[in-house]
Amino acid sequence: MGPILDSSVLIAAERRHETVAQLLKQVFGLAGNQETALSAVALVELVHGIYRANTPQIRARREGFIEELLADVPVHPLTRQIAFLAGRIDAEQQSQGIKIPFQDLLIGVTALRGICGGDRESATFPEDTRSHSQTTLTRIKRCR
After folding, report:
1. Alpha-carbon span 130 to 95, nearest angstrom
2. What would the DSSP string read from start to end of the chain?
3. What is the pLDDT of residue 35?
4. pTM for the full model?
5. Cβ-based neighbour number of residue 67 at 10 Å
6. How far apart are CA 111 and CA 108, in angstroms?
7. Is pLDDT of 143 > 70?
């Protein structure tokens, strides 16, 4: 499996009026032609954006983007294994004074389970998860 798309990447693409095809072309350019997927948590964040739209036009554009996305990209569910790994990583990080926003934790662990089968040593989280103004595509090291 290839990269799990973060909601910040998807939101930025939608706000720039990019199509899903254009976004996936960028992703494939960076990560190679691998199966790209979406976390169920990221889907919740995208749907939230539909209902926060200020105008009917923005709402319709967001709905269309999500429908196009779901036609091209599979959604990975929140599984028991993901829940246990997220709980462990969250507890370990908080005991060291590090707070990972919950949604980012779940999306990251979904990616981690898919790419490495749960090797938490390969996980990285952005230092500043509050900035969603630009699309950032980060290469994830392949597991050994």
Report:
1. 22
2. --PEEPHHHHHHHHHTT--HHHHHHHHHHHH-S---EEEHHHHHHHHHHHHT-SSHHHHHHHHHHHHHHHHHS-EE---HHHHHHHHHHHHHHHHTT----HHHHHHHHHHHHHHHSS-GGG----S-TT--SS------PPP-
3. 84
4. 0.72
5. 10
6. 5
7. no
Give the separation between CA 82 and CA 36, rounded to whole angstroms.
Answer: 18
Closest to 87 measured CA to CA, from 71, 109, 66 = 109
> Which residue in this structure is represented by tokens 């990583």?
89
Based on the number of CB atoms within 10 Å of its own CB, is 144 exposed (0-12), middle (13-18) or buried (19 or more)? exposed
User: What are the pLDDT digits (tens) for 69-95?
Assistant: 999 999 998 899 999 999 999 999 999
Each residue's pLDDT tens digit, 8-17: 999 999 999 9
Other C-beta atoms closer than 10 Å to the C-beta of 114 total: 18
Cross-strand bridge partners of residue 4 = 37
Distance CA 122, CA 15 (A): 31
| Structure confidence by residue, pLDDT tens digits, 99-108 | 999 988 998 8
